[in-house]
């Protein structure tokens, strides 16, 4: 190749690169041009749905396009996850999921997606405490009595959860291990339906996120025994921690995070990341989450790198726990 040909080739390559960069820049400036669908892999009315709708409202204001929450429940959140993994990587389908994203690889022998590699991480969203609650007329007065009563009546007690892989399932699994009692579990297609049956007295107790229980606890519609954090929750000041109330070391928080499909274009991912950064700093988001016993993550955790590192570490941790427990969904 002559020197003139080399120069022409170099100029052509530079022009192509600049055109691509200009195209990406224009795309970033134009995006979003229509509403965005935020998939929540659980039924409406549950705790993850509640968190998603709060963040969707704030992100809508930032992006100047509506972020619409769509509930795609079933199979412990894996149906919704699979739908997002198969969706077009254009930024118009995003995904808000909780800790179940890290437990699915161990719980399900056959997943149609890779939980760590088939999504574009956008950032962590919130850490939500769990609460141990029971039907309003449950006999036990405090957590110590609850543990004793459950151990003595384990064949008669029913424990509700939102399905295999849900936060309530994981909390229940840890609880049964801690108190050495296998209980009859009643799985639902989401925490909302499970809470409805707890309110109606059809099931005895459950472990659920504060975003779903705080209002019911304050209204006196269910009996609360403990919160699963190291320190008491400000919105439930009279509720002791599980460690202080009789279950030393029993702590679990449910983290939530935002993702896009794999290979999301960087300009689009950056725009969504900026919207998430706006949301975790938004006073409206902070107030609404505070009312529900939680708060958004620090901005440093609401980043792609932080989520990617955290998710991979959580997958390793929960794989070890679940395999040791011998619990599988299929």
Automatic annotation (TrEMBL):
Q: Mind telling me which Pfam families this protein's record contains?
A: TctC (PF03401)
Taxonomically, the superkingdom here is Bacteria
Family stated for the protein in its record? Belongs to the UPF0065 (bug) family.
* Keywords linked to the UniProt accession: Signal
Please report the name of this protein according to its UniProt entry: Tripartite tricarboxylate transporter substrate binding protein BugD
* Signal sequence, renumbered to the chain: 1-28
